[in-house]
């Protein structure tokens, strides 16, 4: 087994803070309440910090370490289909696509939520419907994300949830690794 420091404290704090903020707004707050709005602002602020950290942060936090790649994603799908196992030290290609999806979706939720608080868009049905569709898309994406993390953890033998808590990926020596 090989231990590799992958996720820095800011990435882990961002990840779990966004989990809490999204869950709080999706499951526990009244959508008409001020706390719902403030938690939305916090979620957008967290993503703003993450975007900045994606440009100047540590190696695996940088967006340059996991560019969106359709060919990389197809290669990972091929690995899954054929039973080939590789450990990716940072995000996998499919994981990268999910990260970009979630960041953009939650930003769009924040934008549509903000729009609903303005005089221009107050009570405008399509803005409310867009907000709800985006929340549903995020919820589906999160369920897929969790399922994929559990699947890849089982398939590769790399405990991905533990890595997002400790910061370290523990990679079996039998696996080839990709940056």
Per DSSP, the total helix count is 6
The low-pLDDT segments are none
Q: Between the first and last Cα atoms, what is the distance in angstroms? A: 17 Å
Helix content: 55-70%
What fraction of residues sit in β-strands? 5-15%
Look at the structure and give the mean pLDDT: 94
**Morphology call:** elongated
Secondary-structure class: mainly alpha
Biggest beta sheet attributes: 2 strands, antiparallel
Summarize the structure.
With 179 residues, the protein is mainly alpha-helical.
Structure description:
With 179 residues, this protein is mainly α. The protein has helices at 9-28, 34-56, 70-82, 93-115, 125-156, 160-166; strands at residues 2-5, 86-88, 168-171, 176-178. The chain has a two-stranded antiparallel sheet. Helix 2 (34-56) packs across helix 4. The radius of gyration is 18 Å and the shape is elongated. The mean pLDDT is 94.
List the helices and strands and how they pair.
Elements: E1 2-5, H1 9-28, H2 34-56, H3 70-82, E2 86-88, H4 93-115, H5 125-156, H6 160-166, E3 168-171, E4 176-178
Parallel strand pairs: 2-4
Antiparallel strand pairs: 1-3
């Amino acid at each position: 087994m090989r231990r590799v420091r992958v996720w820095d404290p800011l990435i882990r704090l961002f990840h779990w803070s966004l989990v809490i903020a999204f869950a709080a707004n999706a499951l526990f707050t009244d959508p008409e309440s001020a706390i719902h709005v403030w938690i939305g602002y916090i979620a957008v602020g967290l993503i703003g910090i993450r975007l900045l950290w994606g440009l100047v942060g540590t190696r695996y936090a940088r967006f340059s370490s996991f560019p969106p790649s359709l060919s990389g994603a197809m290669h990972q799908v091929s690995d899954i289909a054929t039973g080939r196992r590789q450990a990716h030290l940072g995000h996998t290609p499919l994981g990268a696509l999910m990260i970009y999806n979630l960041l953009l979706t939650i930003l769009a939720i924040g934008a549509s939520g903000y729009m609903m608080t303005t005089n221009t868009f107050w009570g405008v049905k399509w803005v409310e419907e867009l907000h709800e569709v985006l929340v549903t898309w995020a919820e589906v994406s999160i369920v897929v994300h969790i399922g994929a993390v559990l699947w890849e953890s089982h398939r590769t033998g790399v405990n991905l949830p533990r890595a997002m808590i400790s910061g370290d990926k523990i990679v079996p020596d039998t696996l080839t690794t990709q940056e």
